Description:
It is a single chain. The protein has 192 residues and is mainly β. The chain has a single domain, classed as Porin (Beta Barrel). The longest helix is centred in the N-terminal third of the chain and has 16 residues. Helices cover 8% and strands 57% of the residues. It has an eight-stranded antiparallel β-barrel with strand order 1-2-3-4-5-6-7-9.
Amino acid sequence: MRKIFFCLSAIAVVLISGQAYAGSASGNFSVGLGPLGNIYVVDSNPQLDMGAGGYVFFDYRWSPQFSTQFGVVVTTQDGTGISNGDNGIEFLGIPTFDLKFYIFSEPSRWDPYGLIGMGVYAVTEGSAKNGTTAVGIGANLGLGTDFYITEKWSVGLAAIFRSIGLIDSMGGSNNGTALFPFSMMGNVAYHF
């Protein structure tokens, strides 16, 4: 009976501490997807509401504390304020590129990180047909964490601030705009 109790205690310690997770036996690659919502910190043109959408990503963890992530972000938003009535505007990040720094170098069930990166972003024309279309480059800065359910599967949360400069026309002197979305993201990922 004492041996069974010792074995169960050892298993419980491994499960609680998560020593068999976060890149140990799971491999260096992961793919995932999840929901995403944007809150715009500064009003710009177009003014957008709190859009919802999703993202997919591929991540390569090339050391215990660093990884590189490539992703695609898609959200649908309606206009608000001066852009009221301009609905169905797509906000796209195709692709985004982030460098992640993991806080813990030892395997753990919890795997918090900071990230910095950039992306190519676009805003599509909405229902008003008023020249909303724009393309540009932006910077990303964020924090997040992953929680390993098993060695192969994790769920995560992240908050990312994006500063994006967009070009909305090639003519005239006023052909630029900027967006400053704060993205809240969840995900499920498979590690291999």
